[in-house]
């Protein structure tokens, strides 16, 4: 059961002018399953992406980077589930290229105008024939109001689709932001990927798009963690179709531009948080906020040390205010000159630790009351400066082990 | 059930001349439990130690460092279980000092000649009165052949005591090396500590001892991991009593000195590996060996990424040769210029990955045969240089979650 994650309602997902999406069943790994999706983008769309930092990145990630760099104008994306095309060597690269070539041929485009994405089993050969055979049906299915279907079409072991949509006014024009995501850990059977796609019809100067997608990722997908296992295939793509009729945004300083960016960030963040809410075995959604750091980097070190600690995560699962584990994680986070006597810890509104020791007025029952909630904020003060960072994670339950220890089938 | 870990036999643990050990029940946290141990060292013994790198280190770690630095000649150590005296602020430091002062008074020593150690619950006040009240009984119990009892006396949630002993000839004299350890994760109820104590009666130049204890730790306790949670209290202490009658060792280049060092390293490594074999919920003992690195540091990055990955560890628990997870962990280990096309992976004798892709001759049943074993070696070749490193870890089972999600009681 995902944690407080509503199922998307198709009628609430606004189409984005210039984007059509088609989904089909290609039988990549299993029959009777939506496993192949195509995004078709009108000419003139601008696309930017950020990809996994994993050095063992999958073939489609390598090809997507190449095609974005080629600058031919991206006109389509193709996403298969069931197979990650990772750890597949030279054959994997050839298969990712063959997929792009086949879709390009169907659409009358160049292969460099296609971005490929794969998610699923690692170290098995991509069944490229089945994917190519499925492309015509996916294209035939393409329509503007297919976001909810696509959210389902990119799922692997996600327990439910993830999609959000917002509209804002920019220069008197209604601008739409709609996105989908998938991921629930590095997933059985080692489905290894978080994928996120956000599109807007806003006119945004193409030169702004790459820094924008990086900024959105840093405020959303780069701030969530389930098990600390960075996948081989993570990808987050932003599409701007420029069809909303607004005057092109060339800087972010106007109120309208800020409103658009806020909508983009909200959709990105909700999509990223949805992955945590649907995290493997998750029973709680945890916000880890670090304040008082010298730098944002050291705040992230502390936040991830807490968010990745199996001991902290099992304590959340147990609703056990075993808060020494949080202190210990801050202590080993790698902040060399940390002064433990300045550490402060809150659990929601409960002040647990002051000056590195137990707050004299802290009562265990107050800690336990918060720990029993399904949404919890851990707030650590480092007492060193003014930097802050926030990370979202989930707890660590028996179901996590069950899901990940299940033999691939 | 620990993995292939024999219960120590008291008769096989050779006393170390100049070391007597006493153990008693002080009721630190629970009644009827051996929870207070003292090591009494003859005058002239040399002591060196290495301690947790956790910045949130416990009060006894801070005091032990001070007392070693004071250079007054360490003559006793006192170890309590049931309470870690960590996250206890200024009161915790005062309690650790009070424990030393009380033992010094009983023994006619200075407080600076005592090293204190605590392991158990974090963020609760040390019941120093009960510890002080127990000291006379611990001292009265002191004897040379008490190593097996001490191994039991320092246990927290360890399922069995851990002790090893070796004798070697140095310059025609029999030299003894005996040690004990404890730890099984950062443990319920957040017992947070690996402790290791190794003593030898060999005469070793005192100037060599600190670098020796560091070298032994680097080859043993610093190479094991259960859940990646560095505790607040980790300590490893080496005692040399100089009573074996051998000519003092002033360098390590002779064959005899090498034999002694090998015995010290073997005992240290067995003690460290015993902690992994008794790791919380462990069903398998995993050796992770990285070869072909440019530096030992980057080999350690890769080894720990594998050893800490919840996905890798759950796959071992399931006996599932889900080996893409190992590749993914190597990929995110932080080796920036890693070339995935040079990666090689063996599981014991089975060659799984060659040139970053699946070995054409690899068969899943071969991988599964190895994964079903209780002892498994993962060997990754990075193809970048000649450096190697080895780390030992265990798998990640339902019992780990059960143990760590159990409410403290």
Automatic annotation (TrEMBL), chains A, B:
This is Arginine biosynthesis bifunctional protein ArgJ. The record marks 192-193 as: Cleavage. It comes from Comamonas avium. Its EC number is 2.3.1.35, 2.3.1.1. The lineage of its organism: Bacteria, Pseudomonadati, Pseudomonadota, Betaproteobacteria, Burkholderiales. The keyword Ribonucleoprotein does not apply. The active site is at 193 (nucleophile). HAMAP family: ArgJ. CDD domains: OAT (cd02152).
